[in-house]
């Protein structure tokens, strides 16, 4: 049976000891995970596969966990199971079958009591039959944000964990959390009236990646394939930079937190966000790849950026004068997410003419997770000449037997354990929108234009020129 082997129990025990360090309560008993929007893209590609992997590793146990998919689409339990199975190719048939038996499907709308009463009955019946006296209820909203307020209201009205049992109710919400400061604050207030901050888990899957630290370059070799309609409403800044890149930026630029406790870490993130200067128009390059508007769901006159390079400057003692370049784009030459920290040249450098390149520390989040240091070293031999070399920690070579978990696995597990460290707090979200809203409004008003770039290229040449202007050297 999945989850009963020794590696599963040793993983469980290492998580238990971390929980102890963070003073998180360890809980057992009946756990229900409800995936709302179970018929959708995110649910089948990310949420259910992540739940499967947690089950396979023993973090979700048969007899304790119950999974319910909820959406409007008319589906049977087996219909949903068949869709999920299609995304678990290559997994052990025995484990998959056992996992699928934990899953039920309830169909209903997002704004009427009828469906949520049915959902509550499904959960309550399982809890009664489980007989543990506990009721832990996790609701994962894999849904468009437009329905978050009504769905949260329904959960609050019909599906809360009963006070007669021990347990909790937690809600995971997906980005985008609004499209600017005002809309994000409005959404936060609506959800805040229904749930306490410690019940809300605003997910940013970049925070779940193994190597997450600061991010300077983020490249995707695919376009907006099939998501043009959604993408055109948001653009690359709202889709990736304001959330994923900014979160990683925070982790690099923040000061050392008082402890590893979630609130201490999030306090430091808020501080560094509040220290970011207003973005200058001349330190922004926007691009749109040629062919983007061929998508029939994208308007012919769209100015939505599919690429952006933005310089952030942090006004504090540590970072004054240091540019942070956040760069992301669709349809570029490669699919990469990395952080590059370039070290200043030594003042009064005596090697001047002979030296090449610059020392640089690179953290590659994906693909092929790695950390490496590019160093200028003496070229071996009798000449006094220098060249660039590397100290290389490639995870694939160093940790050959270790499977790196998917971001969503880690984050769902954190939610079950009540660890909000890797989730975005309300004041953090507000500070993030404060940084980008003036720029976004100028783009929406057509005051800043996106330049065109070729699909499969490095993006607009103006972006490389901006990096060079602010002091970055291509090594
Ligand atoms: P989908 O468009 O696939 O929607 C999910 C489900 O929601 C659908 O199956 C549908 O279920 C229901 N739905 C769709 N549109 C509406 C609507 N207008 N009103 C009410 N219900 C609707 O979304 P995704 O699965 O792609 O994304 C879900 C959330 O996750 C979104 O917030 C998205 O931004 C976020 N996200 C998605 C990523 C991805 O890779 N897909 C990546 C990161 C974040 P039914 O009709 O059966 O009720
Ligand atoms: C999503 C964005 O949040 O993150 C996508 O909506 C983007 O546009 C994706 O492609 C990137 O995530 P990952 O994990 O594939 O790098």
From TrEMBL:
Q: What residues does the Glucose-6-phosphate dehydrogenase NAD-binding domain cover?
A: 34-214
Q: Name one GO molecular function term.
A: glucose-6-phosphate dehydrogenase activity
| Enzyme Commission code | 1.1.1.49
Glucose-6-phosphate dehydrogenase C-terminal domain sequence ranges: 216-471
Root EC class? oxidoreductase
A Pfam family annotated for this chain is G6PD_N
Pathway membership of this protein? Answer: Carbohydrate degradation; pentose phosphate pathway; D-ribulose 5-phosphate from D-glucose 6-phosphate (oxidative stage): step 1/3
A GO BP entry: pentose-phosphate shunt, oxidative branch
Q: Which SUPFAM superfamilies match?
A: Glyceraldehyde-3-phosphate dehydrogenase-like, C-terminal domain (SSF55347), NAD(P)-binding Rossmann-fold domains (SSF51735)
Catalytic activity from the UniProt record:
D-glucose 6-phosphate + NADP(+) = 6-phospho-D-glucono-1,5-lactone + NADPH + H(+)
Q: What are the UniProt keywords, alphabetically?
A: Carbohydrate metabolism, Glucose metabolism, NADP, Oxidoreductase
Name the family: Belongs to the glucose-6-phosphate dehydrogenase family.
The name under which this protein is listed is glucose-6-phosphate dehydrogenase (NADP(+))
Q: Which organism is it from?
A: Hordeum vulgare subsp. vulgare
């Amino acid at each position: 049976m999945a989850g009963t082997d020794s590696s599963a129990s040793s993983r469980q025990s290492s998580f238990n000891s971390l929980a102890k360090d963070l003073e998180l309560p360890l809980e057992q008993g009946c756990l229900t995970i409800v995936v709302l929007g179970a018929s959708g893209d995110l649910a089948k590609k990310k949420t259910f596969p992540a739940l499967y992997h947690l089950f396979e590793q023993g973090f979700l146990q048969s007899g304790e966990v119950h999974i319910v998919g909820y959406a409007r689409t008319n589906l049977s339990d087996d219909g949903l199971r068949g869709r999920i199975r299609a995304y678990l190719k290559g997994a052990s048939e025995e484990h998959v079958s056992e996992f699928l038996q934990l899953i039920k499907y309830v169909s209903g709308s997002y704004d009427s009591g009828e469906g949520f009463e049915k959902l509550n009955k499904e959960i309550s019946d399982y809890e009664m039959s489980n007989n543990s006296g506990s009721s832990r209820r996790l609701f994962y909203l894999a849904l468009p944000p437009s329905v978050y307020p009504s769905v949260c209201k329904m959960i609050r009205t019909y599906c809360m964990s009963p006070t007669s049992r021990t347990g909790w109710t937690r809600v995971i919400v997906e980005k985008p959390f609004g499209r600017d400061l005002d809309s994000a604050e409005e959404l936060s207030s609506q959800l805040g009236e229904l749930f306490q901050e410690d019940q809300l888990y605003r997910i940013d899957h970049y925070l779940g990646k193994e190597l997450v630290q600061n991010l300077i370059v983020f490249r995707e070799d695919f376009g907006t394939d099939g998501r043009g309609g959604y993408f055109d409403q948001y653009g690359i800044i709202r889709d990736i930079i304001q959330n994923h890149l900014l979160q990683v930026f925070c982790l690099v630029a923040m000061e050392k937190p008082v402890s590893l406790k979630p609130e201490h870490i999030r306090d430091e993130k808020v501080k560094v966000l509040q220290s970011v200067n207003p973005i200058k128009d001349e330190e922004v390059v926007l691009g749109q790849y040629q062919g983007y508007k061929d998508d029939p769901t994208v308007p012919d006159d769209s100015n939505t950026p599919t690429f952006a390079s933005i310089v952030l400057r942090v006004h504090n003692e540590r970072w004054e004068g240091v540019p942070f370049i956040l760069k992301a784009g669709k349809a570029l030459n490669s699919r990469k997410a990395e952080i590059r920290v370039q070290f200043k040249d030594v003042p009064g450098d005596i090697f001047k003419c002979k030296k090449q390149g610059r020392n640089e520390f690179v953290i590659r989040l994906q693909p092929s997770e790695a950390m490496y240091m590019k160093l200028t070293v003496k070229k071996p031999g009798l000449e006094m000449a220098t060249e660039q070399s590397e100290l290389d920690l490639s995870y694939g070579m160093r940790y050959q037997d270790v499977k790196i978990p998917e971001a969503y696995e880690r984050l769902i597990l954190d939610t079950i354990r009540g660890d909000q460290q890797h989730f975005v707090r309300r004041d953090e979200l507000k500070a993030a929108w404060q940084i980008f809203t003036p720029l976004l409004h100028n783009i929406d008003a057509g005051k800043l234009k996106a330049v065109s770039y070729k699909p499969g290229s490095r993006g607009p040449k103006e972006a490389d020129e901006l990096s060079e202007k602010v002091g970055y050297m291509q090594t």
